[in-house]
Each structure stands twice: as structure tokens, then as C-alpha cells.
Amino acid sequence: MSYRSLKSVLLACSGAAVLLAATTAANAGGFALREQSAYGQGTSFAGVAAGGSLSSMFWNPATVTQTAGLQSESVLSGILPYAANTVGAPSTLGAFGGTGNVGHSALVPSSYYSWQFNQKLWLALSVNAPFGLTETFPDVWAGRDYGAGGSHLNTYNATPTIAYKINDWISVGAGVQIQYAQAAFTKGIGATPTVQAGVDGAGWGYGFTAGLTLTPTPTTTIGLGYRSAINQKINGTLAIPGGVPFNQPFSTPGSVNTTLNLPDVVSLGLRQKLTSQWTGMATV
Question: Which residues sit opposite 107 in a β-bridge?
Fold first, then answer.
């Protein structure tokens, strides 16, 4: 395969490549990391946009006004994926067979900090990894034209936040998302083992968060939060067969870039205290 034709193939699929073969933005849910709060996981994320812990600010920055003084919260979540592949007919490389588990386990950290500046104003910061996935495919398998070797997407997101308590029953909040991402994808070339090509890159993306909480009664809290979409830029290099090291910078013709259109998220939460021991919670 010529350099020009190979580059055309990889450029055409580079967006799917760094998304680990996802074909639409909706598929980002497959590598979205929802595990950003131990408190949220313990309640199955019911009512999380209405507060309950400092980590609720991931879904709704206005919930920061529920924490007094100087506060911090840190979470470490274990991700244990399993993804195997079986061969179905027809497949031009069906004789190569499928794969065992190609997923990688990971520990996902997240941290939250808030400072009550005065009776009305809070400053906060969250640090998260909202999207991520790592897979390693064998070199010889039926789908090597779509993935052979290691592929990963890692994101690191910091969100400085400000929240304001207008009065006892309404608070608002907003933040700026600053996100760095690293992505790599390798694929096989035809039926020849060890012949691979790939893309490897990194870049920055930006977005925002916004939200409000309503407390119409002392026992009722309603929260509405929004995390904007991020058009994550990835700029990197194209590696092709021919003895060129994978991580060596290429000249301009070997450079590649793409944009990962990561989705926005809207969360509506309700917390209703029923008795001193029972609280009803719901999320949309």
C-alpha cells in the first residue's frame, strides 16, 4: 500500500480511531466515566444534581453552596472492563480468529475543593478524568484492519468554579472546563502479521458548566446542572510501515489532526426529605 493511500485511509478513520472505533458522538457514552463520586455511586446517582456531597458539583456547580467553610473531597474508583470479540461470517480474515479480553482495568481519581469566601460567594475547583478507555488487541485476529496493538484515550479535566447563593431558596453556579487529552490508535495492514500503522496525538479542549438549585421548602431541593460539549482537539503524527519509529515526529505530510466531539450532559435532580431517616431522590 502506498504512503498516499495509507495516509488517506488513516485520515479518513482517524476520528473513529481515537474514539476506539466509535462512529458517532452518542457512542461517547461507551467511554464516559460516570464514576466521579463515591456518594453518587452509593445512591445510584439518584438526585445527584440536587446535591448531597461536594462531588455533586461535577453535575451541578450550584450545589457548592451547600458546603460551609473550606472543604475537600477525593474519590478513587476502580474500572474493571471486559470486552471480547468473536468472529462472524463473512470475514476476510476470519481464519485469524477472535480475541480474549482486550479491556484494561484502571483506577480513576477525582478531587473537589471549595472555599466559602463569604455568606453569598463560594470558589471551587474540581479535577476529573471524565472520558477514558484503554484496549490492547492482538496483532493477529480477524479485526486487525480495525485495531491491532494498543489504543487509548485519556482525558484530564480541571474546572474552576464560582457559586453564588442569591437567597435561602436559590443558588447558581458556573465553571470553565479546561481539558487535556491523549489518544493513540494502532491498526493492522492487511493479512501480514506485525505490519501496523497508527496515529498518536494530544491536545486541548474547552467548555463550561452551569447550574442552579432551588429549595422551595426546607425539605425539598431541586437541582438542574449542565456540562457543555467539548470539541476536543487532537494533533499528532501518523506512523506508517517502513521502519519509522512510532513516536518519532513526522514532517508536515505525516501530521494528522482531528476533533473529538464529546457530548454535553444535562442533569435534573430532586431530593425530598420524607422523615428524619428517609429521603427520596430522583434523577433525569
Answer: 78
CATH number at residue 107: 2.40.160.60
Number of structural domains in the chain: 1
For 1, 106, 158, 237, 262, the CA distances from 205, given in Å and listed in that order, are: 34, 23, 11, 18, 10
Amino acid 270: pLDDT: 96
- Distance between CA 280 and CA 156 in Å, rounded? 33
Per-residue pLDDT at 214 exceeds 90: yes
pLDDT at residue 165 greater than cutoff 50? yes
**Domain boundaries, position 8:** 3-283
pLDDT digits (tens, 9 = 90+) for 60-83: 999 999 999 999 999 999 989 898
Tell me the CA distances in angstroms from 58 to 142, 151, 154, 177, one per residue in order.
40, 27, 18, 11
Average per-residue pLDDT for the chain: 84
Which residues pair with residue 220 across a beta bridge?
Answer: 217, 272
Whole-number pLDDT of residue 133: 87
Please list, residue by residue across 57-67, b when 16 or more beta carbons sit within 10 angstroms of its beta carbon and e when fewer do: bbbbbbbbbbb
Element (H, E) at 42: helix 38-42
Task: Give CA–CA dist 128/77, Å, rounded.
Answer: 11
As a whole number of angstroms, the distance between CA 112 and CA 215 comes to 23
d(CA 90, CA 92): 7
